[in-house]
Amino acid sequence: MNAIEVHNLSKSYGKVQALDNVSFSVERGELFGLIGPDGAGKTTLFRLLTTLISPDSGRAEVDGFDIVKNYHEIRSCVGYMPGRFSLYPDLSVEENLIFFAALFGVTVEDSYELIAPIYKQIEPFRTRRAGKLSGGMKQKLALSCALIHRPKVLFLDEPTTGVDAVSRSEFGICFQR
């Protein structure tokens, strides 16, 4: 079974066709990237596969679950880091991490070794409000929150937007295991 199966997936917003009969598959353990210009439908595809929106036609499965019929199961087994900062700016770094861990019934301690390569870089700022972090630190926090429950499939939508060159290379640390 593949991690992701997409068959003739389409989505439009009014007269704008964001996706038109897209099909592909991603094997388990495969690192798969979507490359295209702004407006090509990449974020729409991520939103469909993470069950935030529904397709107009076609079908897709994530971890063997149908994106329409089995959205609850998908939401518990995927991690999603959207392109824009979407954490709670009034919560501290540590509070955001604890909150996202609790949503999935885990603790930070349960998954610390998984997030440690990235989280250790922002841990000295754990009491700082997330909204007061630099762009790179926000992205590191968002990645830590997306990984905290050990997702089977991880979706990263422009994970290094607003991140300096040194921090970009540090993101690769998480995926070298």
Provide a quick synopsis of the model.
Helix content is 34%, strand content 21%. It has 177 residues and is of the alpha+beta class. A hairpin with a 2-residue loop joins strand 3 and strand 4 (65-66).
Can you give keywords for this protein?
globular, alpha+beta, four-stranded antiparallel β-sheet, 34% helix, 177 residues, single chain
Would you give an account of this structure?
The structure is a single chain. The chain is an alpha+beta fold and 177 residues long. The protein has 2 domains: 81 residues, Rossmann fold, CATH 3.40.50; 86 residues, Rossmann fold (3-Layer(aba) Sandwich), CATH 3.40.50. It is built from 6 helices and 6 strands, in the order E-E-H-E-E-H-E-H-H-H-E-H. The chain has a 4-stranded antiparallel beta sheet with strand order 2-1-3-4, with helices on one face. Strands 5-6 form a two-stranded parallel ribbon. The protein is globular, with a radius of gyration of 17 Å. The model has no long low-confidence stretch (mean pLDDT 91).
